[in-house]
Write a structure and sequence with these properties.
By secondary structure, this protein is an alpha/beta fold. 35% of the residues lie in helices and 21% in strands. Strand 13 (231-237), helix 10 and strand 14 form a beta-alpha-beta unit. Helix 3 (65-83) crosses helix 4 and helix 8 crosses helix 9.
Length: 316
């Protein structure tokens, strides 16, 4: 029998060793170097001439899929080796032949009274990464979740980095769906039920990009009592003002209207309120008209919003 391993989620016991894995040491960095790139002061640069990847690519074209994948792998390795995050394969207790997805959790995720869930938008984003193309063009601070993770940890949060785009994997040369993780909504439901609800957290905040907010709305609709009891803040970057359309009843919408705030690309001063089409979601200017800058531009506003909401929720 394989030795029992206890994951970073503390209350979840995993008896299959494959359910709890770590990335190979520095493998992502080696891959980047093999492709002629490396990170210097948080910026991806060409090893051959020291130019930023954006300048170097002016002659070589758009970043390849392999480069984007290597950048994402680099961030995941960074989370493990530099920030003591742990990788949890999902579904828990999957059979060796079963396709799996995964998330990353901080080493205090099981014991912290408050958690921050980070959810990228549909597309290329993964655990620790808002958008790998932005990492390539603008650097780790702009395109990765590392600044949010560092700030959250310093503020006493446990952190869970979700992987809503990991529901389809290559198995024996064929693309296969991962059970319970076919889309972002199912992924969040599973992580909520089998990971989040097994922790000691009594207060939960969410940072979501783009349509990542839709998964939160779905969770509110399918698990309203749990969500109302624990969720105290949702910060949406590149937010859509119609993301509440699937919230269900009026009570759900009222709750989400209280705990949610969105930021969109706009040249108006940061936090200037933007008129919503349905009046249900407070949307503010991110203080920039460049989508690739929005996550980093609003980070101080997001965590101030979290503080305000946490204080109000604690008085309930």
């Amino acid at each position: 029998m394989a030795p029992e391993h206890r994951t970073a989620v503390g209350l979840v016991t995993v008896t299959e060793t494959r359910n709890f894995t770590s990335a190979p040491p520095c493998s992502a960095s080696h891959t980047l170097q093999e492709m002629g790139y490396d990170f210097k002061d948080g910026k991806l640069v060409s090893i051959s001439n020291g130019l930023d990847a954006t300048d170097h690519r002016a002659c070589t074209g758009s970043p390849s899929e392999s480069l984007l994948k290597s950048v994402s792998d680099y961030v995941e390795t960074y989370l493990e080796e530099q920030m003591n995050f742990r990788k949890i394969l999902l579904p828990l207790n999957a059979k060796p032949s079963q396709p799996t997805s995964y998330i990353y959790v901080s080493d205090n995720a099981s014991t912290s009274k408050k958690l921050l869930l980070l959810i990228p938008a549909s597309g290329q984003g993964g655990p620790g990464v808002w958008a790998p193309s932005v990492v390539v063009d603008k650097g780790l601070d702009a395109g990765s979740q590392i600044p949010y993770i560092k700030r959250a940890l310093s503020d006493g949060y446990g952190v869970v980095c979700l992987h809503p785009n990991g529901g389809n994997v290559m198995t024996d040369g064929k693309r296969t769906s991962v059970k319970y993780h076919e889309d972002s909504k199912q992924h969040l439901r599973y992580v909520w039920d089998h990971v989040i609800m097994k922790t000691k957290a009594s207060r939960i905040a969410v940072g979501a990009n783009g349509d990542g907010g839709g998964a939160v709305v779905d969770l509110m609709s399918t698990r309203p009592k749990q969500v109302r009891r624990k969720l105290f803040a949702v910060a949406l970057s590149d937010a859509a003002d119609n993301c509440f359309t699937s919230a269900g009843n009026a009570a759900n919408k009222r709750f989400l209207n209280i705990v949610c705030q969105g930021w969109v690309c706009c040249a108006e001063p940061i936090n200037t309120q933007i008129t919503c089409t349905d009046g249900s979601l407070k949307i503010c200017s991110a203080g920039t008209s460049r989508p690739e800058e929005i996550a980093l531009a609003i980070i101080e506003s997001v965590f101030q919003f979290f503080v305000e909401r946490y204080n109000k929720a604690s008085k309930r």
